[in-house]
Amino acid sequence: MDFHLDTLLNLPNVVVDSYSNTLDAVILKLQLINDGINCPNCNEYICKTHQTRPILVRYLSVFGQLVYLKVPRRQFYCPNCQTSPTEPLSWLNKKQRQTNRYQEYIYEKVRELTVKQVSENERMSEDAIQDIFHKVAQSKKKTGGYLND
Ligand SMILES: [Zn+2]
Predict the structure, then answer these.
(1) Which of 32, 120, 124, 132 has the most neighbouring CB atoms within 10 Å?
(2) CA 100 to centroid of ligand 1, rounded, Å
(3) What mean pLDDT comes out for the span 90-107?
(4) What is the CA(1)–ligand 1 centre distance, in A?
């Protein structure tokens, strides 16, 4: 079967490197295929990585299993402005532990159900659900629309 998880996932510059299972979760290890980025400070194209640390972020569940993405967070070095910016990803906001698409999903679910129900369905604490809801609600107020995905 010729089958591409990357296509299903549909995130820019992302391929799925491998996956592993725990009892109730699937972990997809991602690879970013762009060599470099444009420096967020001076816009110079840079491709020298300073360091990479993998983080786990929550994504939409599939087949009744929780999904986590193992994302290589890359920090580049910019010789032009001598900074080490972290790679901006359009689908994952800074310091977040869930992708934008997942946060948007939680927001919509809380509008339909109660925080308690969403917490049980997603196996996530009520506090975390509340946090996500408020964050998305706030950014909608600012932009008047949806988060990037
Ligand atoms: Zn720069």
Answers:
(1) 132
(2) 26
(3) 95
(4) 44
